[in-house]
Amino acid sequence: MRKTLKEIAAFVGGDIVGNGDVVITGASGIKEAKDGDITFVANPKYAPLIDKTQASAIVTSRDIQSAGKPILRTDNPSLVFAKIISFVYPQETTRPKGVHPSAVIGKGVRLGKDVGIGPYVVIEDASTIGDNTVVYSGSFIGGSTKIGSDCLIYSNVSIRERITIGNRVIIHSGTVIGSDGFGFANVDGQHFKIPQIGVVEIEDDVEIGANVAIDRARFDKTIIGKGTKIDNLVQIAHNVIVGENSIIVSQAGISGSTIIGKNVTLAGQAGLVGHITVGDGAIVAAQGGVTKSVPANTMVSGYPAKPHDIARKVNACVQNLPRLYKLVDELKKKIEELESKVKNK
What we know:
- Helix content is about 15%, strand content about 30%.
- With about 350 residues, it is an alpha/beta fold.
- The chain folds into 3 domains: about 5-90, MurE/MurF, N-terminal domain (Udp-n-acetylmuramoylalanyl-d-glutamate--2,6- Diaminopimelate Ligase, Chain: A, domain 1); about 100-310, UDP N-Acetylglucosamine Acyltransferase, domain 1 (3 Solenoid); about 310-345.
- Strand 22 (about 185) and strand 23 (about 190-195) form a beta hairpin.
């Protein structure tokens, strides 16, 4: 694909400084870029690489006034570069069109306009699929489930019965929506299954990574709020509520009936106990073990999770333990020597 910097600027906006006729044939990171590539700098710490990169043009913030090569000054370099990728590398993936002959479509299923249903998809009775939604091969959609418009359901996704999915939702391969919540009653040492009769509701513009498990509620709803993005290998238990525009990173686990606010970030391998609240705008750092509610707009880390500035001090103390142990051992010997001298006198 060949585009001039002028053509790219016309597509994404921004101000060109330098030669707008330079031809762009690819896109890459600033360290890996070569002649013909366009790259970007969003983090100020990478600004020194502007003079070192082999890229033919660079997307920058408006703080950068000039460089030794053409730049495209923008308000949000990272977002603009993402748009450039789609412009320079148009989507060429072949998507299913119509209903493949091997698909199994139940009674009373309603399919919208321009729906694509791939090979060996199973859609059970009374389900609804909205306009322009694509379901790739081998996926399962349970009875009375509603999926909105412009969704992408990749191969081997399982969406069980009575689930509601909004518009423009993306679900990657291997994910299970609506599996039974982990509920058992212990009677005389035996575990008896508690029926999980609730549902899952996924709102608009959510993206769910590969091999994610989102359990149905015991009675009411497990809810994933509008615009939330979920990484691969995440577990969300029954009756969890995740607010709008939150980020849940790989291998995080949320126990039952926990409420996650809006714009929350749960970093990789964060673990949350059940029946707590994480306030709007809060951040749980990687491997944070959250055992009690987290106030809004705070950052916690460590296990058990505590305010990040305190956790850092605790960690610093832990790193000093070998030195402190040696010091205490030396002091112990000196005390013993002094006690011996006193005793001999």
